[in-house]
Here is the input.
Amino acid sequence: MKTIKKLIIPFLLLAILITGLIIYTKNLNPKQPEICINNLCFSIEIADTPEERQLGLMYRKQLPELAGMLFVFQQSGQYNFWMKNTLIPLDMIWINQDQKIIDIQQATPCTADPCPTYNPQWTSSYVLELNSWISEKYGIKIGDIVEINQ
Here is the structure.
């Protein structure tokens, strides 16, 4: 009986240690949200609070090719954007509640005050910002369906 206890206790301690390491590792590498269009996926940052949406991609000097920011709104609306303090040109892609692209506009960094605004033609629930040449390079167009994986 004592021999079994001597074997069980180290085994249980080892199992607890392994479980803890697995949980710790998963927390270090959470799954990155992504958005896929035409079988091409982009790693995205989510901006779903007023503060995150206001900051957006301001002050960034670069954006990886397959990366972007997804602005998430609680309800559909006519969401206008501008490029104040944004240093890189962007494609702004408006997406409706059915996850269909309804407008795409190329936006350039603002060099004059007041900055121009970019206005969608229709109401949307999301706006995706990518590097300005991405839509053309990968054939992303109005009517394409978007898959959002958060």
Notes: The chain has three helices and nine strands. Helices lie at 2-28, 50-55, 134-138. The longest helix spans residues 2-28.
